[in-house]
Amino acid sequence: MQQRIGVIDLGSNTTRLIVMGYVPHHSFRLLDEVRESVRLAEGIGSDGRLQPGPMQRAIATMRLFNQLCQSSGVQQLIPAATSAVREATNRSEFLARIEQEAGMHFRVLNAEEEAYYGYLGIANSLSLSDAFMIDIGGGSTQVTLMRGRRFIRSVSQPIGALRLTDRLISSDPISHKEFKLLEQTVAEHFANVDWLGKHGANELAGMGGTIRTLADIDRKLRNYPLGLTHAYCFSRDSLADIIEQLRGMTVRERADLPGLNHDRADLILAGAVILHTVMKRGDFEQITVSGQGLREGLFYEQFLSGENPPLLPDIRSFNVQNMARTYNYEAIHAAKVRELSLSLFDQLAILHGYGSWERELLGHAALLHDIGLAVGYYDHHRHGAYLLLNMALPGFSHREQVILAYLVRYHRKGDIDTSELQVVLEADDPVRIARLAALLRLAEYLERRKDQVVQSLRVEISDSVRVIARTNGAADVEIWDANRSSGLFRKAYGREMQIIAA
Amino acid sequence: MQQRIGVIDLGSNTTRLIVMGYVPHHSFRLLDEVRESVRLAEGIGSDGRLQPGPMQRAIATMRLFNQLCQSSGVQQLIPAATSAVREATNRSEFLARIEQEAGMHFRVLNAEEEAYYGYLGIANSLSLSDAFMIDIGGGSTQVTLMRGRRFIRSVSQPIGALRLTDRLISSDPISHKEFKLLEQTVAEHFANVDWLGKHGANELAGMGGTIRTLADIDRKLRNYPLGLTHAYCFSRDSLADIIEQLRGMTVRERADLPGLNHDRADLILAGAVILHTVMKRGDFEQITVSGQGLREGLFYEQFLSGENPPLLPDIRSFNVQNMARTYNYEAIHAAKVRELSLSLFDQLAILHGYGSWERELLGHAALLHDIGLAVGYYDHHRHGAYLLLNMALPGFSHREQVILAYLVRYHRKGDIDTSELQVVLEADDPVRIARLAALLRLAEYLERRKDQVVQSLRVEISDSVRVIARTNGAADVEIWDANRSSGLFRKAYGREMQIIAA
Fold first, then answer.
1. Closest Cβ opposite residue B477 in set A33, A68, A227
2. Confidence at residue A450, expressed as pLDDT on a 0 to 100 scale
3. Is A255 near chain B, with CB under 8 Å?
4. How far apart are CA A313 and CA A322, in angstroms?
5. Out of B33, B64, B378, closest to residue A377 by CB
6. CA-to-CA distance for B378 and B15, rounded, in angstroms?
7. Which of A44, B119, B181, B413 has minimal Cβ neighbours within 10 Å of its Cβ?
8. Does B71 touch chain A (CB under 8 A)?
9. What is the pLDDT of residue B211?
10. pLDDT digits (tens, 9 = 90+) for A344-382
């Protein structure tokens, strides 16, 4: 990683620093992340002034962030502030102090910029083309419309989880009266946003700590088997249930709710009501969560500098490559396994009947099949699956990620068993995985020595299947091993399969 | 890894190639492994001749192994053969053919050499000083006595899992008569080994595929939560139960037994009877399984060349270092975290009362605490624990490995919860882990910027604990973060803790 960049997002509630290592336009990797619950907007009164205590906390935190960046070799730092600073009447005083005492020159994003960078974070990490996006912060909420991956318009409302809690909630658990006022206040702010809803786009994506936290609560309630937040989907109905549950609890009781961070326990209800209101207003049945947002948007602007807008042309291929590079994959071997897998896939189309989606997944799985070697040789197929189930892979749904994980798992050794994660899969995915894995395993064994000895394959289909391998040298190892792996093929396709040299 | 070596072990039943990358005396890593069920000893009659079919299979496999070594950059190849070849009357003919047709010059180990290299494999991978070792092969069984880590004596009996099955078992499931004959035959072979048992050493360690397979069956029967075979222990009583179960099953039925490889289903009963007989004869209540044996012994002779005998002076420290290097740990940061952890441990001795064993584990955990970064930044504490629970860490018991995994898991984030793997732990380990993890987390935060700003620590103990940090520069970040992590300390030690700069 040639360059290191730090991005700071100073919000009304929390502030976060991410450190990325990257090669522009090529690859990147998160190296460090620190989050502080500064609550900068705490106690702001009708005069709109940031209070001395919160300012002091923010300045101390920025000093720490700056030291951290210096000692970890960060060459470029992008500190950005959002609504709390933007709207503060003593904003210049605060910015001058941060500059003097923490040595940081903050960029204060206006409401549209804040929405734009959030859009960049999502448009570069979820496979969406036309969608609404919502970012619920401590002090404000942005809703944005994207069409054809382009930023179309946005609205920012000065209501956020912290601000609403500060102003409207004094009872614990919340009284019926306060709850109704909360709902009513939020509804009023979105009553006039008449472009919000299905005539704009069908999908809704969400970012920010409030929405990630709601997703985590939902995951725990459902005993969802994956630990991934990015690309997680939850429904408006589930959200309504969570709100009902939160309404009946004191802040202290909420602290025991799995998935809920202590320092958000008081704010989460107001945040949930904002989200529910927007979902109802736009008639969205569900929301997809993004782990990336404003900070990553600011990062992508640097990473893809020169592009306007700075969008990855192909999120999925990029992230597969990025993951493969992270684990030092052997590019030539992986490319050959991919080529042989896809050749088999294409020539066997009449037997499996799958289309471009399965073909794409098979190709990605082929590139990633050996990443578990970065963990260790023994069981590296299992380690690869662990990586695919525990790392965000932006651009893919959880179902797709699980399919990829199983393909990597079964590129060698063992009979297919996908029951453990069936809840994330569709009913016909076990068959799909078995058929694709059989091809991947064959291709892997035809590349057993990783020396590209098999040049191409010709498939002859009758009652059984014959695969004729054209080689550029002795390929005994490969053909022997591939024939040994034919059991998986027989089970998946119900036909005998034999590999011979041309 | 500067050098690549291949080691082949051609036995009566299976043959295996391992490829190791290594820097002599420094570090090594398994790069590849291939196993073939050749059954070279199959069908040997009273004339003692290897049969044409098995010889052909062995030669073909060696050709493949040779190709594989050549294309993976192996510079040195050590092919070793054991009892099947050693005792064959047509041995020279077979060796000449392998040399001619597969280009390999085999070293034929005599019985004592076979025992010696097995001893080297175990003495370098299990923390044992005085122990018996047993290696059950396809054609012979070696029992060896080690004292003070030195090879004392061994005995080799010409009974192995394949040979006994071939000669004595024709019924399926085995008849009562054949089973009794099997037991009796094995017992006779060990009746005169009068040095086998408690007057020699208390512990028994086992190697080879038969014993590993029995361990895997036992693990599955017990629903043992770890996937590790190396250092797994099982009892003579469990073995007796497994034998009872196998006796009642046909070979085909055994194929469904979890943990049992298809190509061992027929042989496993005879192997189990050999092991049980030796355990009874020597009055051993349990056996510890080694994942390393003959092949690794041959490797260690190269890796530690110049040492006689080639023994790692400190298996545990070596393997911790080796694992840390495998995952590119930051040595200076890790050493500092280790130093600070141990300084806290020593000065807090009066509060925890722990001794050298806990101190050693804490030091190892400190060196390994960040290895999960090789997987990814997010949740790297969890990834580190995954690595420690899924990689063999020779020299440590499973209990110790789980303690290390939990220490790494809790070096940052979250409250201690060790319930998932409690079955591998002792009753007081949760407290032990909580106390050690609290120190590790403190040390980690005092090294937050990885720049060794904290030089030393002084601990003052009264109703609460004060830690005074001597620093060589501003350490606001570290002291802030460490104080934030004091909750873990308070829970583990029941006292408030405060860190201040000197």
1. A68
2. 86
3. no
4. 14
5. B33
6. 41
7. B413
8. yes
9. 97
10. 999 999 999 999 999 999 999 999 999 999 999 999 999
Residue of A nearest to B69 (CA): A449
Q: Does A17 touch chain B (CB under 8 A)?
A: no
Query: What is the C-alpha separation between A270 and A169, in angstroms, rounded?
Result: 9
**CB distance B450–A71 less than 8 Å?**
yes
Rounded to 10°, the helix A268-281/A209-221 angle is 90
Question: What number is the average pLDDT over the span A29-57?
Answer: 92
- Which residue type sits at B72? S
* Predicted confidence (pLDDT) at residue B1 exceeds the cutoff of 60: no
A72 at interface of B, judged by CB pairs closer than 8 A: yes
Nearest-CA distance B472 → chain A (Å)? 14
Nearest CB partner across the interface for B64, out of A71, A378, A477: A477
Chain A residues 375-434 within an 8 A CB cutoff of chain B: 375-379, 382-383, 386-387, 390-392
CA distance B10 to chain A (A): 18
Indicate the pLDDT class of residue A1, thresholds 50, 70 and 90: low
CB contact under 8 Å between B377 and A29, yes or no, is yes
User: pLDDT band at A130, cuts 50/70/90?
Assistant: very high
Facing residues of B364 across strands?
none
Give A384→chain B minimum CA distance, Å.
Answer: 10
> Which one of A30, A68, A480 has the shortest CB-CB distance to B64?
A480
Is residue A45's pLDDT more than 90? no
Q: What is the average per-residue pLDDT within B42-54? A: 92
Surface-to-core class of residue B305, CB atoms within 10 Å of its CB (0-12 exposed, 13-18 middle, 19+ buried): exposed
B8–chain A Cβ distance below 8 A for any pair:
no
Hey, are the CB atoms on B476 and A386 less than 8 Å from each other?
Answer: no
ipTM greater than 0.90, yes or no? Answer: no
SS3 annotation, B350-369: HHHCCCHHHHHHHHHHHHHC
Residue B48 has pLDDT above 60, yes or no: yes
User: Which of B246, B467, B243, B252 has the alpha carbon at shortest distance from B351?
Assistant: B467
Mean pLDDT of A38-67: 92
Q: Cβ distance A438 to A493 under 8 Å?
A: yes
Radius of gyration of chain A from its Cα atoms, rounded to whole angstroms? 26
Q: How far apart are CA B244 and CA A292, in angstroms?
A: 57
Cis peptide before B173 (omega within 30 of 0): yes
Tell whether A172 is within 8 A of chain B (Cβ): no
pLDDT-derived band at A473 (thresholds 50, 70, 90) equals confident
Sole residue written with tokens 């004292």: B147
Q: 3-state SS string over A460-499?
A: EECCCEEEEEEECCCCHHHHHHHHHCHHHHHHHHCCCEEE
Residue A201, pLDDT score: 84
Q: Which residue of B has its CA nearest to A371?
A: B375
Burial of B460 (0-12, 13-18, 19+ CB in 10 A): exposed
Asked if A472 reaches chain B (Cβ–Cβ under 8 Å), the answer is no
Report residue B394 as tokens: 């020779």
Instruction: Give Cα B284 to chain centroid, integer Å.
Output: 20
| DSSP strand pairing (B497-501 vs B465-471) | parallel
Going by the DSSP 8-state scheme, the letter that residue A369 receives in this structure is T
Q: Is the CB of residue B98 less than 8 Å from the CB of residue B59?
A: yes
Average pLDDT estimate for A244-256: 93
CB pairs under 8 A between A and B: 85
Contact B103, B121 (CB under 8 A): no
